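Budget justification aside, the reviewers requested a transparent look at the raw inputs and outputs of the sequence design task funded under Objective 1. We therefore reproduce one unedited record. The lines immediately below are the structure tokens for a 195-residue chain.
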């Protein structure tokens, strides 16, 4: 139990590292004051361009993969492994370094899935990519791909992982409430679209 608690705290702290903010500062930009104000790769792309966005995306993905990899190294249960992965997503969404504010957790959730359930993670990423290519809406890609996540987990992996898939989906939808409202109103900005 002590190991599990330690890993949860470590995952939260790792998830709290705001790569988007750090990368934007190197460019002399306060990411919270430009574009959508979000700390994720989509806003970095919109505000700073492709290369900073790629580094932000990779950093945010790695937060999830490192958390689950650490959990697996310490040989915790499948469910605990998933909870530790979720802790990194919570850290990203409510960063201790940003006054418990943060991003939407999509990239970090992908990072969790790529280790926790590689086939399902890859399928979720492919669905996200296809939706984004067709629609140019990152938020819509996230919503549709994660809406299908629990069903894909049922089909392609073990039942012990389904609760984690449901929680990841809930986290994504809760953090995208404002995006859902803008999509309904036709006011959501597309990828690459500036103010």
């Amino acid at each position: 139990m002590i190991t599990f608690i330690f890993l949860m705290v470590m995952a939260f702290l790792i998830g709290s590292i705001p790569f988007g903010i750090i990368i934007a500062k190197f460019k002399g930009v306060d990411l919270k004051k430009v574009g959508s104000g979000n700390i994720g790769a989509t806003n970095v792309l919109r505000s700073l361009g492709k290369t900073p966005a790629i580094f932000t995306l990779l950093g945010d993905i790695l937060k999830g993969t490192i958390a689950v990899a650490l959990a697996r190294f310490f040989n915790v249960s499948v469910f605990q492994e998933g909870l530790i992965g979720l802790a990194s997503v919570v850290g990203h969404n409510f960063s201790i370094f940003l006054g418990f504010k943060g991003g939407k957790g999509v990239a970090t959730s992908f990072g969790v899935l790529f280790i926790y359930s590689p086939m399902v993670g890859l399928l979720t990423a492919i669905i996200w990519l296809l939706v984004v290519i067709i629609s140019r809406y990152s938020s819509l890609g996230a919503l549709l791909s994660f809406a299908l996540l629990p069903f894909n987990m049922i089909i392609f992996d073990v039942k012990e992982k389904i609760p984690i898939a449901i929680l990841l989906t809930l986290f994504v939808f809760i953090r995208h409430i404002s995006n859902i409202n803008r999509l309904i109103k036709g006011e959501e900005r597309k990828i690459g679209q500036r103010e």
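The radius of gyration is 16 Å. The chain has one domain: 2-185. Computational costs for records of this kind are itemized in the attached budget.
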